[in-house]
Amino acid sequence: MIGASRRSISSVARSTRCFAPSISTSSSQIPDSRSINGTESAQGPRFSARWFSLLTAPNSNRAANPKIRSSLLISNRFDSTAAAVGSSDPPVEKFEYQAEVSRLMDLIVHSLYSNKEVFLRELVSNASDALDKLRFLGVTQPELLKDAADLDIRIQTDKDNGIITITDTGIGMTREELVNCLGTIAESGTAKFLKAVKENQEAGGDSNLIGQFGVGFYSAFLVSDKVIVSTKSPKSDKQFVWEAEANANSYTVREETDPEKLLPRGTRLTLYLKRDDKGFANPEKIENLVKNYSQFVSFPIYTWKEKGFTKEVEVDDDSSKSDSSQNEGGEDTSVEKKKKTKKVIEKYWEWDLANETQPIWLRNPKDVTTAEYNDFYRKTFNEYLDPLASSHFTTEGEVEFRSVLFVPATRKDDLIKEKTKNIRLYVKRVFISDDFDGELVRIMRKRLVRKAFDMILGISLSENRDDYDRFWENFGKFLKLGCIEDKSNHKRLAPLLRFFSSHSENEFIGLDEYVESMKPDQKAIYYIAADSITSAKNTPFLERLVQKDYEVLFLVDPMDEVAINSLESYKEKKFADISKEDLDLGDKNEEKEKEIKQEFGQTIDWIKNRLGDKVASVQISNRLSTSPCVLVSGKFGWSANMERLMKAQTHGEPSSLEFMKGRRVFEINPEHPIIKELNVASRTNPDNLEALKAIDILYDTALISSGFTPDNARELGGKIYEMMSVAYSGKWRAPSAEVHPDPPRTLETIEAEVVEPPRTPETVEPEAVEPTDMELPHWTDIVKTGRFKELAPYDPDWYYIRAASMARKIYLRQGIGVGGFQKIYGGRKRNGSRPPHFCKSSGAVARHILQQLQAMNIIDVDTRGGRKITSQGRRDLDQVAGRITIAAA
C-alpha cells in the first residue's frame, strides 16, 4: 500500500506479515522505538498496529531489505512467485493504442472533464470497483482473498518529486486484462463485469460499481506526464506493469521482477505529475479531494499523513547544576536545582482514515437518530451548528433517488448567487456535482421543493418558537422573494410569512394567527407599509382601526409590501392597504354620509380649487378620529412607502417619478375643529388670505404625516414659522403689573439726537430708567467702530443697525456685555506686508448702545453678568419679526 517513490517502505509487501505501526517513507520519519508494538510512550500517542507483508527471494535465506529498524517483529515468510534475483529481466512488450490516441487524449484532457480535480475521483472509483468485484467474487471463491483479507485503498504522496501513488487490494488484472482494458479507450472492464453479472444472474444485490465509460482511468493524464500501473491478479502467479506517457502513441507491458515492488494482490497506480500540477502531491490537498469526492466510498481510504505531538525535553543549562557549600560544622548544604525543560513538537507519519463518515442516506430513516443526522450534517458541510430540521426520504418512479435535506441554522453569503454549492449529487456513493446553475433536474425538483416546504412548516409549528425566529431572520427575505416570483407555491409560502402588528409590536405573528384573531365583522386583512414600527403605529391611517380594535400588520421591510401585493388574499380574506382610498371598515351609514356631504360640499370644492392638481379629489374620511386630514393613495397607485422606495431606485429621475406616482386623495375629518372653522370660512369669506394659507399648511402637514416627502421642505418651514409667529406673539409676555405704562418703542420709530459720548468708567453700568427714544450721537459720521477700520461707516443708519443687531443677540443669548460685543464685532487689522491680526471693536460704541437700549427698557442688567432682554423688549422684537415675515411673504 506504499508508493514506489520511496524504496525504503515500498519494499514492504504482503507475502510475509509484519506487525508494526505506520512507518514513514524515510528513516528520519520512523517513530521512536518506544512507540513500536502498540506501546505508548510517555510523550507520544499510541500508534495503531498494522499488518504488513514482506517478500523474500526464492531460495534465499534473507528477506529483501525494507530498510526499517530492527525493532520490527517479522514472521511467516513465503516464497515469491517472481523471478530470482540473479535471473535476467523479462522482455518489455510494446503495444500501439487501438485508436487515434492524440485525438482521444485531447478529448479527455480538454473536453471530457471540466475540472482537473476529478482525476482522483475517477481513480479512487476504479479502485473501489476492483475491491467491490473482489468482494463479490470472494463469496463464491474464497480462495481469491487468501490471507490478505483487508480491502482498502491507500494514497501516498511525494510532495518534493510530484508523485502520487494509489494502491488497492482489489481483484487486480492479468496481462491480457491490462492489454484489453487499458490499451483500448472506451473498453471498460467494469462494464464487461456488469454484463457478465446480469447474464449469469448471480448478483444478489447492488454491487456499487462506478465505472461505465472506460475513460475514467485516462483522467490520470489530466495531471500526469507518465503513469505506471503495477497489478497482481489472484488468477495469475505473475505481476505485470503497464507504463505509458501522456504524449506517446504506445504503451509497454512487462513482468514485475523487483521483489521490493511485488504485491500479494491488487493494483498500484503511480502518477508522475506535470510541473504545473505538482500541487496535487500535497497531502492536505489529497485529503481534501478524498473528503469532497469519495468520502462515502464503501471501502476505507487511507492517506499518508504527517502528525505530531507535544513533549517536554530537558534544556542544557549550567545554572541548573546543584550548588554545593558547607556550613561551619562541615555539613554539606548543596541544593539541587530543578531541571529546565521546554516543549517541542515530535513529528511522525502514519496512515490516516480520510472517509470515516458513512452515507447516511442509504440507511432506513427509522434507524437513524437525530444525533446521527446532526453529526453527518456538520461533517459533510463543514458546519459548527446543528441544522434546524432534516428530511430523509426515497423517491420512486421514473427516476429513483434517495435524499437527505437539511435546513441550516445560519445563512451563507453565497446563497443569493445563481450557482450555489448547497445541493450535492452523489451517484454510487461518489460525488458527481454541486453545480446546477440554480436549477435542479426537472424530475427531482418538484419532489425536493415539496419536502423543503414541509420541513420549514414543521419548524414554524414546533413548540420552540426561537427556532423559527432564527430561521426567519436568516431566510425570511427569500420566502418573500418566493411570493413575488413563484406564484405556483403561494399556498405553501403564505403560512410561513411573519410580520409585526399593532397587537404584537415585539414578536412576529403569522397569517394564521392573524386570521384566527380577526373580529367577526372584520372583512379584510389590514396592513400598513412604513419604514419602521414607530412610524407605522403613529400614522393617522391607524386611528379608526385602533378604535375598532382591528389588528393591522406592520410591513416595515422593503420587500413586505411587494410580497403581500403578490399574494392578494389568504384563506379567502383579501389584503387591504389602509393608506389607500375606498377603505371599507364595514360601518357605512349612507344617510349620515349624505348629510355630511351636503354640509361640507362647498368646503370640499373650495379646498380642491385651492390645491389644484396636487390632489385628484377631496373626500370625507372614514378612517380619522383625531387628525384633521390625511393624504391617501389611489386604489391602484403606489403607497407612500412604495413611492419612497421607487424614488430611491430611480435615482430621482423626474420623468420616471412622475410616471410612477399615482393619484392622491385629500381626506378631511368633519369632526375636527380646524375643518369646522374652514367650513365657516368657505361660506363667509372664501377669499381670506389666512384661510387659504391654512389649507396649504394642512396639505403640507398631511403630506408628511401620511409618509410622503414634501416637494419643497424650505417653503414648508417658512409657513410653519410664520404660523408660530402669529400664534405665539405676546403669549408669554410679563404680567400687567410689571409692564410700563408707556407704549412700546420699536426700532422703526426711533428718532435720533446728537449727544456727547459718555465719560463714565467701563466698570460702571447705568441704572434702569424709564423708556426713552434712542438718541443718535453726533459722532456717528466720524467715529471708527474699531482700530482695524480705516474709515468711518458709510451707511448713515449704521448706529441703528448695530443697535438692532445687539438687541437681537441679547434676545437669542442672554448675558452678553461690552467685552462680548467687542469680540463679536471685531475684525482683522491689516498690517501691510506683515500678517494681519485680530482686533476688538470699539468698547465705547458698544457701551453707548447698551445704555440707550437699557434706557428704552429693551434690555436690563443681568445679575449673572452682561445684559438680558426684558419682557417689553421681547414683545417688541417679536412684533417686528412678524411684520417682516408677512412683508416678505
Work out the helicity level: 25-40%
Task: Give, in spatial order, the strands making up the sheet with the most strands.
Answer: 4-9-8-7-10-6-5-11-12
Low-confidence stretches: 1-87, 201-213, 736-741, 744-771
User: What's the β-strand tally?
Assistant: 29
Q: Do you know the CATH architecture of the largest domain?
A: 2-Layer Sandwich
What's the number of structural domains? Answer: 5
Question: For the record, what CATH class of the largest domain applies?
Answer: Alpha Beta
Number of helices: 24
Rg, alpha carbons: 48 Å
Beta percentage is 15-25%
In CATH, the homologous superfamily of the largest domain goes by the name Histidine kinase-like ATPase, C-terminal domain
Largest sheet: 9 strands, mixed
What fold name goes in the CATH topology slot of the largest domain? Heat Shock Protein 90
The averaged pLDDT comes out at: 76
In short:
This protein has 889 residues and is α+β, with helices and mostly antiparallel strands. The chain is 32% helix and 19% strand.
Protein described:
One of its GO terms (cellular component) is ribonucleoprotein complex. It comes from Asparagus officinalis (Garden asparagus). This is Histidine kinase/HSP90-like ATPase domain-containing protein. The protein is of the alpha+beta class. It folds into five domains: 68 residues, no CATH class; 210 residues, Histidine kinase-like ATPase, C-terminal domain (Heat Shock Protein 90, 2-Layer Sandwich), CATH 3.30.565.10; 101 residues, Ribosomal Protein S5, domain 2 (2-Layer Sandwich); 139 residues, Heat shock protein 90, C-terminal domain (Four Helix Bundle (Hemerythrin (Met), subunit A), Up-down Bundle); 130 residues, Orthogonal Bundle (Arc Repressor Mutant, subunit A), CATH 1.10.10.10. Helix content is 32%, strand content 19%. It is built from 24 helices and 29 strands. It has a nine-stranded mixed sheet, covered by helices on one side. A six-stranded mixed sheet has the order 18-17-20-19-22-21. Strands 2-1-3 form a three-stranded antiparallel sheet, with no helix packed on it. β13 and β14 form a beta hairpin. α3 packs across α6 and α9 crosses α14. The protein is elongated, with a radius of gyration of 48 Å. The N terminus is likely disordered.
